Amino acid sequence: MISQPRRRKPAPAPWAALAIVFALVASAWLNRALSSPHAQVAVARQQRSHRNIPIVYSVEPVNTPTPTLPFAIGETSGVLWDLNTHQLLWQLNAHTPGPMASTTKLMTIYLALKELPLNKTLTVTPNAAATSGSDIYMAPGEHYRVKQLLYGLMLASANDAAVELAEAMGGSTAHFVKEMNQEAVKLGMHGTHYADPDGLSPQSVGTAWDLSIIAEQDLRNPLFRKIVDTKEVSLPHNPIVRNLNGLLFMDPEVTGVKTGWTTAAGFNLIFTATKMIDGHRVTLLGVILHAQDGFPPEDADAMKIIQWGFHQVQLQMTPPRHPV
User: Fold this and answer.
1) Using one digit for the tens of pLDDT, what is the confidence trace for 124-150?
2) Is 231 a catalytic residue?
3) Which superfamily does CATH assign the domain made up of 76-250+261-317 to?
4) Of 10, 36, 161, 165, which has the fewest beta carbons less than 10 angstroms from its beta carbon?
């Protein structure tokens, strides 16, 4: 029996190999763009309607025009997101950096929730107890559980709690600040630089865009959502600690998040609000920065932005009416 000669497989054409490589690179880039929150090169937008049309993602440039607010506000920078669709509803100088004040603490609590056991007991250090500004009156040698410090950090904007948590994680505030900046880079917060864990330093600077990134990361944690939606809590040596976020007391739709003020930063507010619209639970995330007239006017600005944002979402959900 004569064996037939084997046929050689034809070598793949060079263009086919190049096409495969290109497809792999494009796929990796797209996955990264869609998975990173508020990516600098793209925003993942989810199209949605009351008819339950399947979700469709499209990649949009960050500088896509957004509507302007139909009213004046006292802030010089801000953003507003529909968190359900990841749609950017409004932005104003969103990438302009400036001092962050106590909104800095959003990174402090982000790392604490990742690294510290909630029931771990910490002994207050002299350095933490001596921290100036907003505090929960901690004294050297007193004991607090991590969870208690997290409530103090967010509700009372306690600088002493921020330093205590920072030292517990980093061994020193300097080492912890280094970790804060490393995490900011990982999250794509390219306009942010931290100089302390509490925001007292005017050298802790960031943008409205970046603050929305870290706020969204925090909001993925159920305990964080519970803390920032709490109006009052009792802590050691502090029978009543009241949340400084006045919005929580103005509208039941508001669910957080954080205030911040220093002379350099002005008045700053990060907020969330949730409402049912056409059978859909809609959550807005907003950031407004650098007001000069106090929190009552800023709270009023936030309320107007929230109602405007919900109206924009409702308009997008309502199908166009065609003449019969």
Assistant:
1) 999 999 999 999 999 999 999 999 999
2) no
3) DD-peptidase/beta-lactamase superfamily (3.40.710.10)
4) 10
